[in-house]
Amino acid sequence: MTLQSTAEVRASERVGAFQHVTLAAPGVVETFRPGNFVSIGLDDGVHLARRSFWVHRVRSSSSFGATIDIVVRPGGAGSTWLAGLPVGASVDLIGPLGRPFAQPKEPVPCLLVGEGYAAASLFPLAERLVERGCPVSLLLAADTADEVIDGLDVRRSAEAVTVVTGDGSMGAQGSVAQALPGALQRSGASVVYAAGPSSTLHAVAGVSELHGAWSQVALEVNQPCGTGLCHGCIVPAVGEDAIAHRVRACAEGPVFRGDRIQWGLL
Amino acid sequence: MRLFVAAGCGGTGRELAPYADLAGVGGFVTRTLTLDPRRGSRLRIAESPSGLVRAHLLQNPGVDRFLTTEMPWLAQQGVPTWASVTGATTDEIAAVVRRVATAPGLSGIELNLAVDDPGALRLHDGSTPKGAAAAVRAVLDVLPESLALHVKLGSDVRRLPVVARAVAEVGADALVVGGALPAALPNGTAAELSGPAVLPTALRAVRTVCHELPEFPVIGVGGVRSAADVRAFGSAGARGVQVGSALLHDPSVLARITAELEEQSR
Description:
The structure holds two protein chains of two kinds. By secondary structure, chain A is of the alpha/beta class.
């Protein structure tokens, strides 16, 4: 059940290039599934479009009560405003939203591929997969070391963690496309989960298919409302009926099967 | 004052249901339907101060798919549904109306003549008195007695009085006046500006039409986000208002406006 609430900022911390914002969100915590996102509205009367954020961590009881952590990359008006909010401030929060990652019924090996701040969405998934007995490997990528998202608990429970950065400042120098075949081979994954820029997701979908693995990709396109009302986040995708449709990233996604997206039209 | 959900801002209805009492609204207007599906492109919305700029490609699944995938739910929920329609020719508009009019649970038709550049979108030009009257006549010829016809006209105040009069004389039941203004996306793509930024222009348009046709029912649309805005349209002569862009920013806005109106009428 999606809820709209006034959520208080309980903590806000700069970690590398990103701001990790902790929000009191008991309603979201109860029904959250990995891959869901939350939507935040600005109340300045100037910015009408809502902003969507990946959830990095969900805690049903922390020292702040039931909270979610979102990872914000300050850039535009919305993310800069949110990253600068002091503890105690409130935001208009809607969540959990969107279609979550589909999880395997059997405990099969999984590879999770995340680039930049979008990798945040993979950490709750990794926890859930580990709980279900799936061997989980991680491939984390970013341009620079300070854009690599960390999740210590997950790293401890993962079979293997590979880090690549564009400038080589952390892990190996390279990109997801370069590191993926090796990581797939080593993990023996039958399912690949990915979050990041669409060019990366496209590469993941292609390589996964070559290796005979399913891919689930968390697409990030601008979502003006986040709730499915405006049809402004259109994704060209092939449906179960084998017909090409224009679907909404926020409502029919953000998670899609990689082989369903018409990448050439995106 | 009747409150409507404006065309293109309520999703398929399902997405709005968690935030609004849809069975209790004055009317839910669908996104504009055409005979065949129309596909949107990806970058369709940008922000401007207190406004949204949308590329109006009239993206929709086509009337037949709407009738199989969206209308049954709206009827089942008892949502007073108004099908917004347009077409390339008057015959095509009539064909859409003929199809959609068979749907159980439909309250009426909103003929969309407020399209900014009908030529570019390969649509019938309803911006002239003659073109508007022809479209209204075509709809009335195939419309069952039980269904009402609202006709939506844009804010071009120089032409409005004559076009409004032509539409009223042919036999429409009400006019929907105001709405988005011609604009451009940052990349130059033709688009429409909506949201609070256009409210004063919509008020002017409503006033113009109500002055021309004092007895004729007019529904105002454009930038409504509060009870005060609703009353402003009432003062201009409108008997109802539509809420559009405000829903994208806050999907609960209808409930808030309704509560504000009730509070003030006590």
